[in-house]
Amino acid sequence: MGVSERENIVCDVLKCLERRLGDYYSSVFQEPLQTLTPFRLIERPFSVILFLAARSPSGLRRFVAKKVVHHQANLSVVREKNQAVVEYTVLSKLHPLYQQVPRCSVPQPIFVVPELELCVIGCVEGEMLVDRLRYVRFFTSVKGFRNLCQSYFDCGRWLRHFQEYTGITLKTVNTFESVLQRCYERVQSLEQSAQGRIPKNFCAAIMDWLTEKIRGLEGYPVEVAGRHGDFGPWNVIAGTNGITVIDFLGYKEEPVFVDVAHWLMTISDENVGLLNSKGRLSELRRQFLLGYAREIDFGSLAFVICEAVQRVISMLGCVVHPTKQYHHRIEAQRRFKRHVRWFQLRMEEVSTCPKRFNDRVGSKALAGNGCQDIKR
């Protein structure tokens, strides 16, 4: 996004917010809004986030205005529904429900401006959970790691309640259509970006393999619920009173394992970190699953399909988000190779892969890893 485009967006947003927040203060607080000052701007690939300080006779309050940005990678999502309205609707339903759940919350929705694809929420104090992953490194604070474990337990509990609140139901295999389409888009990008780093016809083989696995679910029920869209530690704010999950861009109903596999893959990917303790990462995984407290068959067709999609997304991230730091480049290369090897081993097991829903995927050596690396 260019400087002039960014300035125009901020200017349009501020003009709208001064009027809308003024009306909000009059109706909710019965007092005038005196000043509205932006104090921080964050540009993400799919959104522009503006932090605001609003002053009135009763004091200072902080808000966050999030404007959806159309990007080549999210066009299928933003064209389907107005994502600002989707997020506001979801938060309006979830916010009062999470007030009953210890240490788990979502931001308070304030209002939505559909024509600007703009959603305004209450500001949440705390630290991004992804920044606390420094405590998985060797020789870092034991107390800091304990707090990190608590946050991961809270995230598991948050996801369990999220799926319950959005409604866990049984659907047909067609519920995987959006998952497969999303994977296909990532595979196309991967094929263009990773030339020379993947075997010939590797991307086509991934799609054929996934299509076969999804076909194996035909005629059997699939558990579905609300899917966050990007459930990872970069979208969780951790504080002394627990965690708050933010950014529901792309929310829709999909298989329950999508968010679970996404979160577990973020832990698995950290295993390539040169300074990271595998023992601490294993404990984070355990704490998350304890908080989630729902039985998961990691060898089931439904889970392995979701895991495979997350591995494709992780592979793409390794090649489209280059870093200048040498050790991070090494870690990305190791992560990429591990995912390639996972797919190769899976596809070598064609003769033992299940044809029916109740069968487990692959041999005993490959089944039930749950986003952990296969060791051969």
Key phrases:
5-stranded antiparallel beta sheet, 2 domains, 4-stranded mixed beta sheet, Phosphorylase Kinase, domain 1, alpha+beta, Aminoglycoside 3'-phosphotransferase, Chain: A, domain 2, globular
3D structure, described in words:
The chain has 376 residues and is an alpha+beta fold. The chain has two domains: 3-122, Phosphorylase Kinase, domain 1; 127-352, Aminoglycoside 3'-phosphotransferase, Chain: A, domain 2. It is 47% helix and 17% strand. The chain is built from ten helices and twelve strands. The chain has helices at 3-29, 75-80, 83-98, 142-166, 177-193, 202-215, 257-269, 278-292, 301-320, 326-348, and strands at residues 35-44, 47-56, 59-68, 104-105, 109-113, 118-122, 127-128, 169-171, 222-227, 236-239, 242-245, 252-255. The strands form three sheets. Strands 1-2-3-6-5 form a five-stranded antiparallel β-sheet, sandwiched between helices. A four-stranded mixed β-sheet has the order 4-11-10-7. α4 runs parallel beside α8 (278-292), α5 packs parallel to α9 and α9 runs antiparallel to α10. The radius of gyration is 22 Å and the shape is globular.
